[in-house]
Amino acid sequence: MNERRSSIVLGLIAGAAGVLVVLGATGLIIVYTGAYNVAATEEHAAVTRWAFDTTFHHSVERRAATFVPPDGLTPTAGAAAYKAMCQHCHAGPGVEQAEWASGMRPRPPHLMEAAADWELSEVFWLVRHGVKMSGMPAFGPTHDDETIWRIAAFVKELPAMTPERYASLGGSQAQ
Ligand code: HEC
Q1: Counting CB atoms within 10 angstroms of each CB, which of 9, 52, 91, 170 has the fewest?
Q2: Is residue 73 domain-resident?
């Protein structure tokens, strides 16, 4: 009886090791043969997109929770910075993204819609740290937290903002 049990256990261990070897070999084949197409002219496969999006959302949610916005944030104070550093990728009310941004994969979303999916602290975290392998830059290394909070607060205003109001904010450096 005992012998039978230990041979079942050994069989299971050998089976699991076999599966790991096959998975590892498949991974190495993909890495070394060029089988995976990195071209941005191809859309992501549904499974790749799902894996990226789900990892992305949970990762941001988990890390942003510890950041608390400062008191007295004036959202419109972030308008000029948004227009100078974000609009060409993410568009704005009444303003399209730059033509080349539509060639990115993932394509930068219009924040007039996407901003509603994120908490203020999550937008702050996204701008401060960026997103690896996506084209979303980290602004933390070059901008202080105060500036980033102002931009994040402005982003959270975008879904409710009219094109006229958007155009009136941010001064002359805005394009
Ligand atoms: C060079 C293009 C580029 C620039 C510049 C850029 N972003 Fe992004 N951003 C991206 C891309 C690409 C993503 C990831 C989209 C995805 O994975 O769906 C992204 C994602 C985001 C997201 C998450 C939205 C979502 O639902 O995916 C926010 C919020 C964001 N960016 C804010 C900003 C802000 C604010 C600025 C300016 C300070 C900025 N970005 C500048 C390309 C850019």
Answers
A1: 9
A2: yes
pLDDT at 75: 84
Task: Output the CA 163–ligand 1 centroid distance in Å.
Answer: 20
Question: Which residues does a 6 A CB cutoff place in the pocket of ligand 1?
Answer: 56, 85-86, 89-90, 104, 106, 108-109, 111, 114, 117-118, 123, 126-127, 131, 134-137, 139, 151, 155
Q: Tell me the CA–centroid distance for residue 43 and ligand 1, in Å.
A: 18
Please count the structural domains in the chain.
1
CATH number of the structural domain spanning residue 83: 1.10.760.10
Beta bridge partners of 92: 95
- Give the list of residues 6+ apart from residue 171 with CB closer than 8 angstroms, or none: 79, 80
Are the beta carbons of 117 and 126 closer than 8 angstroms? no
In a domain, 12, yes or no: no
Q: Report pTM.
A: 0.89
pLDDT confidence tier of residue 174, bands split at 50, 70 and 90: very low
